[in-house]
Design brief:
The chain has 209 residues and is mostly helical. It contains 9 helices and no strands.
């Protein structure tokens, strides 16, 4: 068996515990749900999962190790991610009445929310470094293809993360619907959503590797 059951029984609870810890991905899904409704929050959670699988494939191919060994490449991607999050925050602040009614302001389509989530995840090199540090602990070359083991473990890891992010995105979307017609409260939550994106940018900017 490529990955023994006993290995999965150790890996799955550890991965779930990590996924349930509030982080940048969960906060991004929260922001998208508040900004554009439950469908966007759901799409964002799947976009985060897609980005996670891209990082997993990169780790399996050794690209994450290359990224970890070259600080210049790490910093370039990190600052690109910071700039993208700041741009999202500015767009949120500038959109008038974004959360007031389903037709008011520019609400992201699910496809757009998905794309933005993929970008945010892929442009966070810490995800690559984390996956490179976490997944190899459960990979054994003696059991066969290390590439397939990486991919399978990445799928298991992403299933738990996607489930947690889905719940957050749906909750935020329901909150967005409740805000319809409550102009002042909606505007306050709109500012909070922009603040979430800025907070994510700040975390990337000031956190150390």
């Amino acid at each position: 068996m490529l990955i023994p059951v006993e290995t999965l029984l150790v890996f799955a609870p550890a991965a779930l515990a990590l996924n349930l810890t509030p982080g940048n991905d969960m906060l991004f899904c929260l922001g998208q749900g508040m900004r554009s409704g439950a469908r966007a929050g759901i799409a964002a959670s799947f976009g985060i999962a897609a980005g996670g699988m891209i990082h997993t494939l990169a780790a399996a191919l050794g690209l994450a190790a290359l990224l970890a060994a070259h600080p210049g490449a790490f910093e370039a991607i990190r600052w690109a991610g910071i700039a993208y999050l700041v741009w999202l925050a500015v767009q949120t602040f500038r959109s008038p009445g974004l959360l007031l009614t389903p037709a008011a302001g520019r609400r992201d389509t699910p496809w757009r929310a998905f794309r933005e989530a993929v970008m945010v995840n892929v442009l966070n090199p810490k995800v690559a470094v984390f996956i490179l540090a976490f997944l190899p602990q459960f990979v054994d070359p003696a059991r066969g293809s290390t590439f397939l083991q990486f991919v399978l473990l990445g799928v298991v890891f992403n299933v738990g993360g996607t489930a947690a992010n889905l719940l957050v995105g749906i909750f935020a979307g329901r909150l967005s619907g409740w805000l319809a017609g409550r102009a002042r409260v909606a505007r306050a939550f709109q500012m909070a959503t922009g603040g979430i994106f800025l907070m994510l940018a700040a975390r990337l900017a000031f956190d150390r590797r």
